[in-house]
Specification:
The structure holds 2 protein chains of 2 kinds. By secondary structure, chain A is α/β, with parallel strands linked by helices. Chain A contains 12 helices and 28 strands. In chain A, the strands form 7 sheets. A 6-stranded mixed beta sheet of chain A has the order 3-2-1-7-21-20, with helices on one face. In chain A, strands 9-16-10-11-12 form a 5-stranded parallel beta sheet, with helices on one face. In chain A, strands 24-25-28-27-26 form a 5-stranded antiparallel beta sheet. In chain B, strand 2 and strand 3 form a beta hairpin. The longest helix of chain B has 10 residues.
């Protein structure tokens, strides 16, 4: 399919060499774009997959080569002009002029632009450079953390989100002594709410993790023997390593002054993921109209993949709106936790199959009569049977009785 | 068109089943196998491609 837009484009620049950027490159080529294609990334590695970094790669069951998203041959087949490494980080965009400027001063003029710069790990202020304090976002982070996670090591996890709880589970499997500190009353409380969150508390406690909930870290300092954290309730903890898992910061600051509109750390785009003529956005930094035109920004891995491909099609002239059922999963011990949709902690939550107590459970979430989300612990089949209900905007009552 | 699922790669997301229940069977752990010998009727080819593209583990491929 050759569109008007495609014939006018000689150079497409894709900024961000993660999954979204890679899928955008692949989508452009699959749909027939044969012009110059420049991929800009601020890491030296070829595009790699992040989910295994906190799980199988950290556990040592998956090797570095298996974390790479594509082989060298597959990448070569895309005919990319690569700008990889910190010296090529994009530092400025001028939409009106159609130019991206890189850290080393190179100015890349484009006819089409894909923005997929993703996120970086949020740090505890003042602890970035303390030895033994880690975040987990990049492959290099995972390699560093892996080196200190050994049997008997004392690991303190700050933040009970996806990264924190996955690392806690992996570290326990490796024989480390794990303590988790979290200001909310349950793990993943902001994402999955109290009912499912309590199930995670039980799961981790059953595996020997010490959970200190409802309190935060007041200070963290290096000691001759390692690290010492003081919590806001006065508790003192000694650790050999600290993993800070307190969320991610979207990489949008470099777009200040670009002419694009940024809202809540996301680049505002329309339903086709277009932010301006010839400029599309994909992955963590895209803020687009989801259900009932409410704009959302998702940091899910599957979202990055789907949006990368969709943004490529939009750049080539497709006016198809992006439609998705948000999906995120987490592997903790032997439990696969899967979430469809976007629940809020205050949503109604009703168990349809099994129970959270027995570790195999399917529950649905609803808000003001709408079906907002579904969560499964070891319930992949039933959960995915609910997927079509999202696409047709089913009510909470329909969801509650769908599997009956 | 003919598809297959690599059992070593499949991690039990069951997204393929959610997208194309006619083409995949799922066990209790979400692990997927193709229905029959994996031959895809022409009217389901688009759905098969959707399943391939949406597998987070790249476990499904077109082997026709």
């Amino acid at each position: 399919m050759s569109s008007e837009r495609e014939r006018l484009m000689d150079t497409v620049v894709v900024v961000g060499a993660g999954l979204a950027g890679l899928r955008a490159c692949e989508g452009l080529r699959q749909k027939g774009y044969s012009g110059r294609l420049v991929l800009v990334g601020d890491e030296v590695h070829d595009p790699y997959d992040r989910p295994p970094l906190s799980k199988q790669f950290l556990a040592g069951t998956v090797a570095l080569e298996q974390v790479m998203l594509r082989s060298a041959e597959e990448l070569g087949g895309l005919g990319l002009e690569l700008r990889m490494g910190p010296e090529h980080r994009a530092r400025r965009l001028d939409v009106a002029a159609g130019v991206v400027e890189l850290e080393d001063g190179e100015e890349l003029a484009f006819d089409g632009l894909v923005l997929a710069t993703g996120s970086r790990a949020r740090h505890l202020p003042g602890t970035e450079h303390l030895p033994g304090v880690f975040t987990l976002r990049s492959l290099d982070d995972a390699v560093s953390l892996k080196a200190v996670l050994e049997s008997g090591a004392r690991l303190l996890v700050v933040g009970a989100g996806f990264i924190g709880m996955e690392v806690a589970a992996t570290a326990r499997a490796l024989g480390a002594a794990v303590t988790v500190v979290e200001p909310l009353e349950v793990p993943l409380g902001r994402v999955i709410g109290p009912l499912a969150g309590e199930a995670l508390t039980r799961l981790h406690e059953a595996h020997g993790v010490r959970l200190l909930l409802g309190r935060g870290v007041a200070s963290l300092e290096a000691t001759p023997g390692g690290l010492r954290a003081e919590l806001d309730d006065g508790t003192t903890l000694e650790a050999d390593a600290v993993l800070v898992g307190i969320g991610a910061v979207p990489n949008v600051e470099w777009l200040d002054g670009s002419g694009l509109e940024i809202e809540e750390s996301g680049v505002i785009c329309d339903s086709t993921l277009e932010a301006a003529p010839g400029v599309v956005v994909a992955g963590d930094i895209a803020r687009w109209p989801y259900v009932k035109s409410e704009r959302v920004r998702l940091e899910h891995r599957t979202n990055a993949a789907e949006q990368g491909e969709h943004a490529a099609a939009s750049l080539l002239g497709s006016r198809e709106p992006f439609s998705t059922v948000p999906y995120v999963w987490s592997d903790q011990y032997d439990v696969k936790i899967q979430l469809l949709g976007i629940p809020r902690p205050t949503d109604d939550c009703e168990v349809l199959e099994g129970s959270f107590e027995e570790g195999s459970c399917l529950a649905v979430y609803g808000r003001q009569g709408s079906f907002t989300a579904a969560i499964g612990f070891h319930k992949a089949r039933s959960l995915m049977r609910l997927r079509p209900l999202f696409l047709r905007g089913a009510t909470f009552d329909e969801a509650r009785t769908a599997l009956g | 068109m003919k598809i297959r699922v690599d059992p070593d790669r499949c991690q039990g997301h069951a997204r393929c089943f959610g997208l194309a229940p006619e083409l995949f069977e799922i066990d209790d752990y979400g692990l997927s196998t193709v229905v029959g010998d994996g031959r895809v009727p022409p009217e389901l080819e688009e759905r098969a491609r959707l399943a391939i593209a949406n597998c987070p583990e790249y476990a499904i491929d077109d082997c026709s």
